[in-house]
Amino acid sequence: MSTLKQLSQTAHQLQETVATQLAQLSLDELNFKTSPDSWSILECLEHLNRYSRYYNPALATAIENNSGGAAVPEITYSWMGRKSLEVVRPQNTKKHKTVKHMNPANSDLGRATVEEFLQHQTGLQHLLQRAANADLHKKAVPVEFFRLMKLRIGEALEFVVLHEERHMQQALRVKAQLQKQEVA
What we know:
- By secondary structure, this protein is mainly alpha-helical.
- The protein has a single domain (about 5-15, about 25-184), classed as Up-down Bundle (Four Helix Bundle (Hemerythrin (Met), subunit A)).
- Helix content is about 60%, strand content about 5%.
- The protein has 6 helices and 2 strands, in the order αααααββα.
- A two-stranded antiparallel sheet has the order 1-2.
- Strand 1 and strand 2 form a beta hairpin.
- About 35% of the residues are buried.
């Protein structure tokens, strides 16, 4: 199975997880925090929304500008791409501080956050489909916090999906803690 197809399946699963396991929770449950300095489920989703607001348009532009020629459907990795992916890989349990404007801590969030996440996932699915006709090796996606540096299109797509997977696991851990507390 191609990497793009795997990324598409993962993104679809994340969308399904939110739709079936998180969307039906009450606002109090969605805003539950395991500790004062941790993120709620909505804060996890808002963090991902903030990244999607930047990366979805940046990826759309990169894919559009690098399609129509010879497609390079394999993802190859630069040093920076490998490092970026290692940081967000869900298996990496080390906590990382996020840049201030991407930190949703103590934001006033509601159901619109969930809906926005689901909309971004639909957009990401379209981008992953369109990427099959692009040169995934092309360095064309500026890094959000330092836009002079660029990721390859394939690296950026993988970064977005792994980052979402990492924070979805975080949101599901919050839900599990909430359920433990409700039982106790």
